Every structure is written in structure tokens, then in C-alpha cells.
Amino acid sequence: MYITKKTLLINTFTLAACLTSLSVAAAPSPAQLQFFDQLKSLCGKAFAGKTTLDNQPSAAFSGGMVMHVRDCSDTQIQVPFVVGENRSRTWIITKTADGLQLQHQHKHEDGSDDISTMYGGHTATPGWTEAQSFPADDYSKNLFIKTKMPQSIGNTWHMYLYPNESFSYRLTREGREFRVDFDLTKAVALPKANWGAAK
Prior knowledge:
With 199 residues, the protein is of the alpha+beta class. The protein has helices at 5-24, 30-40, 138-146, and strands at residues 46-54, 65-68, 71-72, 76-83, 86-96, 99-106, 119-122, 131-135, 156-162, 166-173, 176-183.
């Protein structure tokens, strides 16, 4: 088969584009890695927080709040989010092949899984060293439909981390916004282990 120089050139560009695409998707962005490392540097510490924005106030978030950066590895960070006496919630941030994943683990007091657990999302953009966003993934959307919360399929969760200053957790969707800010300038006493977690 005769191959012209033009065909060869086009095929070369196509192959280069494919390889470039694969290389971009092969690892988290530098900003994501730095964000992860900055959060990991807080491991073993706990910080107090408070709701700073909630356009649909709920009694579920009316107590004192503490985030505890508790279990950390090179690929995953677990952050129990304690509200009052409720120790059901843990944020799980995991490095993946092409970014960061956020999951919300929910447990009952006896340690069993809540029906709404492990929902969250994956980064869709490189983000910034101080900020990462996680739009709801397919697992979460299916879960929200199953549990009769279809309004939540548009959820995007955001985390903002300014070392030695503040950490913020934020939820947005059409008509809904919620945000909790934590003071990183002063560590507080470690809370009891979350429900279902090792002591």
C-alpha cells in the first residue's frame, strides 16, 4: 500500500495527540498533589469549625464541629467530621490515576453502613493548590435517585485549604449552598473515634 507524506504526517500528529492525551490523564495535576500533601501534613490533628453559609438551615449542623485528619497514607486521607455528638461522617480523599476523589462515608452508631454512604465525586479539572472541586459521580447520582434525593444529582463539593489559616468544606448545587470553615491556627482536643472506626 502506498502511503503519501501527507498521510504519514497526519497519522503522526494523530498518534502524538493520543499519546499527549494519555500522558495528561496518567497522573494527578501538580496542584492536586500539592493539595493532597498539604492536607496530609495536618494528619493527627483536629480543628474546630462552624457553619458560615447555609441557605437551608438544618438542625443536623447546629452543634459544635470538629474535623480530625485521622488516617493518612500516601494515597488516601480520612477526615472524620464530627457535629455535636454525631460521629457518623467521614470525608475520604483518595489519589487516583488522574486526579483526586472525594467520598462521604456515613455510619450508624453500631458501626453499620448507612444506606447513603460513599457518595461523592472526582476532580474534573486540575484545580489549584488551595482549592479542589468534586462534581457528583455516576455512583452518587444513582444513589441519590434510589434514596429519593434527585435534587442532589447536581451536587458539587469543594474543599479550600490555606495552610496555617483555614480549611473549608462547601456544597453547591442549583438553589443550595452550604459551607463550614475550620480554624487551622489552633488545634483542638482530638474527638472520640467515629462510629465504626478503630479506636
